[in-house]
Amino acid sequence: MIFIILMISMTKNNNTFNSSIHSNNNSNFNSFDNNSSNSILVFEYYTASGINDPNIISEAITLIESLLNDLTIFSKKEFSNNDSLNEKYSNDENINIHFLVSDKFNDIGNSYDSINKNKIVIDIPLEEWLNENISFFDSCMFISAEKNMNLYNLTKIIEDNNVKIYGSDSESTLLSSNKFSTFKHLQNIVKQPKTFLFTITDENPWEISIKSIFEFLYDENNPNSDDYKLIVKPLYGVDCQDMVIISDLEDISGLKEKFPDDIKVIVQEFIPGENVSVSLISDGKQAIPISLNKQYININKETQEYLGGKLPYCHPLTKKAFSVAKKAVESIEGIKGFVGVDLIINDLNNSILNKTDSNNLNLNNIEKNGDNIYFLEINSRFTTPYVGLSKIANFNMGGTIIELLDHKIDIDYLYKKNIGFNQFDHVVKFKKNNTFLDIEIL
C-alpha cells in the first residue's frame, strides 16, 4: 500500500487549517473546505491514537463503525420508512462529517464513500493534533472512556477551543468519571453500595482501615457472611479493568502489589445480584431511557472481565431500573448525548422469583423490592450497547443526538414518539471475541 503525504487546508472564519495527513487514495481534498453550516469532527480515542489495547479494541472499533454508519445515513438524509423520527429531522442543513483516525487503523470507514472522502489520517498524538486543529471545526462527536482521565482531558481540549460537543460537558464528565465523587453526589438520591476512598501508599494505615471495614461489614452481613466480598478498583477505572476481589483479610495485604504507589482506589461492598445497565439519551437536564441491557461479566478472584451483553433485556424490575438510572443522570447537569448507567439488581431470583409462581408474579412484591436496585456508576459517554441498539432501533440514534442537542427536537418529543423504553422488534447479543465483537440479532 502506497501512502501519499499531503498538506490539506480547510477554512473557517478566514482561518487556515493545516495538517499532515496520509491518504490511500486520490480523494478530492477540496471536500475539507468547511463551507457547510455544520462540520462535525468524529473520532474514537483508541483508533485515533493508534492504541491496540486487547481489552478494549474490539468494542472501540465496533463502536466507531456503528456511529459512522448512523452519521452517514443522517448526513445524507437517507432515512428508512420505519424511522420514527424522519419527518422531524432537518433537511435544510448541510452536515459534513470529518472522520479522524490513526494511520494504524486507516481501514476503518473505507466502506462509506462520504466518510472516506473526508477522512483525516494522522500519525501524531491525538491530543497534539486536537490542540492544533480542533478549532477549525464547528462541532465534535467522539468516543472515549474514563481511563487515565482521557474522556475529561479530550472534552476539555474541545471545550477550550469553543467547539460544540455532542456529548457531556467537562464539568459533568469530571464528576461522573470520579467514582467517589459520583458516590457522594448521589448519596441521598439513589441506593448505592457502601463505598470508601483510599490512597495506596508505603504506609499501612489504609490497610488497617480496609481490614476494619471488611470485618465490620462481614459481621453486618450475617447470615450471608460466607459469600461476603469487597471490590477494590481504581478511582477512574473502566469496565472491570484492574479490579481486585477481597474475600478474606489476607487479600488486603496483597493490594500493594496490585496497584502502583499513590494511586487512589475505591473500596466497595460487593452486592450479589444481576449486572445490568440502562442506556439513555440526555439533553443535559432531562433524560429518556432507551433500553435495559443485560451484562455478561466474569467476576471472581482470578478474573474480572466484561464479556458482552444482551438487549433489550426484559425484567420484572425494568421500569424501576429505568427510574433509578434516569434519576441519577438528571441529578448531574451537563450529562448529554448517549450515556449509560450500571446497576445491580440484588438477589431478585431469591427474593421474588423463587418465592412466586413465575407465571403469576406478585407485582406488589416486585414494587416493594424495587429498593433492591443498586446504582454503581454513570458512564457519561458512548457505551458498548450503542452497537446493538444501532442495529435494531427504529430511529437514527446518532442523528437524534445531533437534533436534540441542536434544539431541533426535545425530550418531550421523544417521549411522544415512544422512543426507547425497551420497545424493539428484535433482541441483540454482543460478545467479545479477541479483537472482534460478535453481534447476533435474534
UniProtKB/TrEMBL annotation:
Transmembrane regions: none
E.C. number(s) listed in UniProt: 6.3.4.24
One Pfam family from the record: ATP-grasp_3
InterPro entries given in the database record: ATP-grasp (IPR011761), ATP-grasp_PylC-type (IPR003806)
Molecular function via GO: ATP binding; ligase activity; metal ion binding
Record keywords: ATP-binding, Ligase, Nucleotide-binding
Domain ATP-grasp: 194-406
Keyword Lipoprotein: no
Protein name: Tyramine--L-glutamate ligase
Organism (species): Candidatus Methanobinarius endosymbioticus
